[in-house]
Sequence to fold (81 residues):
Amino acid sequence: MAAEPAKTGPEQHARLRGKCPICGGLSEQKYAPFCSRRCADVDLSRWLRGAYAIPDNAESEDGGEEGTGGAPTPDELASKE
Ligand SMILES: [Zn+2]
Fold:
């Protein structure tokens, strides 16, 4: 119990001071590890899309629609700056 390893990974280290994974800017502590709320939002939407892309409901096969072309994704909007 006393020999519990410290939970200090590279993720925590990057939290202190790192670069925004979205735009590469200096991360702000308030929005760590991102530099702004916008970048955090972009990452969130990106994460959500990835989560939805994972077929974890093998029971219901309603055939989702793939390749949605049209409105620009938050990622594209962020890269445009
Ligand atoms: Zn950023």
The two ends are 49 Å apart (CA to CA). Residues 20, 22-23, 25, 34-36, 39 surround zinc ion (CB under 6 Å). Residues 38 and 44 are 10 Å apart (CA to CA). DSSP finds three helices and no strands in the chain.
